[in-house]
Amino acid sequence: MTAGLRVVEPTPVLRVRDLVKEYGEGDARVRALRGVSLDVQQGDYVAIMGASGSGKSTLMNILGCLDVPTSGTYLIDGADVGRLDERQLAILRNRRVGFVFQSFNLIPRMSALANVELPLVYGGVPQAERRARALAALEQVGLSDRVHHEPNQLSGGQQQRVAVARALVTAPALLLADEPTGNLDTASTHDVLQILDRLSESGRTIVCITHEDDVAAHAKRVVRLVDGEIVEDRRQAPVDGPPPRTAAG
Ligand code: ADP
Ligand code: MG
Prior knowledge:
Layout: E1 14-23, E2 30-40, E3 45-49, H1 56-63, E4 71-76, E5 79-80, H2 86-95, E6 97-100, H3 112-122, H4 127-140, H5 156-168, E7 174-178, H6 186-201, E8 206-209, H7 213-216, E9 221-226, E10 229-235
Parallel strand pairs: 3-8, 3-9, 6-7, 7-8
Antiparallel strand pairs: 1-2, 1-4, 4-5, 9-10
Helix pairs in contact: 3-4, 3-5, 4-5, 5-6
């Protein structure tokens, strides 16, 4: 810390600088990200769009600390991820980031409740508190009447709502979703998007990958990737929402 310096802007939840990711070597080398820079402030709801192969999942996996960049830096909640040791990284991943995947990624033969409790088990939260927080998270996604169901006893939409509850239960600074409605029918897509809308209204910070305009229409801001580069970054009026503020932020 530099003494006497006061930061005027609040610390962004996400600060990404010149992120590069290369896969493979020599002739097989693929540059999946070619210098991506991006700030996301608390409470923002960002849709990251782009064609298949444009680098969306690569970016998401790095932001979620599931993969490491070839070069560049990024800060989550002020923590410089590249400088963390394994233990600090595990804590950051567990507590500060919630992940929702296209394919739900629930653990089979475990109840919805047990699935949602799992991040708290890893986080060392005592059992009674774990239970209470998992039940509250399931209530938030409208699944109080399904807490003892296992994934194969739930519809796709319900499974994804369990996954959202699991992502939320640690009260993360950032919710990351990679094509969260990609495997869902229209009605379930609507349910999940409504939940994300409500979370956004309550101040959550959301970054959602999608290639569908209907999904991106729910976000406050749309970032477009082409071949691993940001080519567009704009604010928009959310669905049924107030008009956008200026693009300055
Ligand atoms: P998107 O999610 O936008 O479809 P990805 O991030 O999955 O794009 O992929 C971006 C580029 O990186 C693609 O050209 C893809 O083939 C390549 N790629 C992704 N993952 C790997 C990997 N593990 N090994 C090699 N190339 C990869
Ligand atoms: Mg992808």
